[in-house]
Amino acid sequence: MRDKGLSRKAVLAELRKFWEQDLRYEDGKILCSMCTAPHRLAKTAHSLFSSSNLGDSGLFPGSLRLEREVIQKLAALLNGKGSVGFLVSGGTEANLLALLAARNMANISSPEVVLPESVHFSFTKICDLMGLKTVYARLDSAYRVDPASVEECITKNTVAVVGTAGTAELGAVDPIAKLSAIALDRGVHLHVDAAFGGLIIPFLRDIGYAAADFDFRLEGVKSITVDPHKMGMTTIPAGGILFRNNAFLDYIKTETPYLTKELQYTFVGTRTGASAAATWAVFERLGREGFRNTIQHCMRLTKFLSSRLEALGFKLVSQPTLNIVAFKGSNSKLLSEKLWQRGWFVSYIPRLDCIRIVVMPHLRKRHLMAFLKDLSEIARANATTSQS
After folding, report:
1. 252-289: per-residue pLDDT in tens?
2. DSSP code per residue over 227-276
3. I need a labelling partner for 281 at 20 to 30 A (CA). Which of 3, 155, 243, 306 fits?
4. Are residues 255 and 348 in the same domain?
């Protein structure tokens, strides 16, 4: 730390140098992120509540009310009458709280969790931290978890089964209804990781797409992760965890005797109320109509991109379920590297040897047209090089 502070102007000038090193969603070059540019109103709301702390919510009753209203809105969207929950640091913390509740409720000495092979990597960290043995169920030809494999994996030590509604790699939606039936029959906690899909799937039917049940209308679903800082277009951080009812909270509570509230239910102690305010602002500003329009925009671009890729001779890994497109070329890894060199930030997935693009709200058709032009040029150059 310097001995004498700089002027406000000097500090801002230095900050701008760092800021200019970051990419901008609005430039249309970020094709690999499940986050997007936050709504303008979310930024304003976030700034207004930047000093509030939901970890000591007795001091910030307005922020607490905003969080509760956001959870009520999410619960209604996910058919969770009587559901409770919290806004947390992200999907990782939300998933952690779900498995913490499941483990503590089961009270088994050697707890195990059944996970799809496609599960998000956060579960690796969570299970290692919590001493949970991971048992992986295989996938079907559409990269969804195979219910028969899940059932085979369940033992007397299983405390939870996880299903994903919108996998991070491909956007696949596991057959949650079948997992619900299995969970009820075997008496285990079913957690649905809908961090990405939770704010997409509820609107798909409204715009003419097929959408399977994945939420609390299925009796076996006991908890759901949904992240407003992804398709909810709010500021980071804003993850969400919802439980079917209050009974689950007894298994994740921690006493906080010197604060204004006697108990906390989240892993992170100090939580910004700015996330609740920003999320509330976006939900109120857009409403269901605004979200429908956003999802329709993303799905139209997804259909456009996937059809153009096929026309160019690339092979889709699977037909998109949500707004994620994965495709293969003759040398996908090299292709992804050359796209990065041209400033297109795509993902390369070694396990599937494919390139992944997430079609988020910040993208426009002109961005994808420019991307496809560069992609075509790179592919032609690679083909010429391999022939010579």
Report:
1. 999 999 999 999 999 999 999 999 999 999 999 999 99
2. -TTTTT--PSS-EEEEESSGGGGGGT-EE-TTSSSSEE-SSSSS-BHHHH
3. 243
4. no
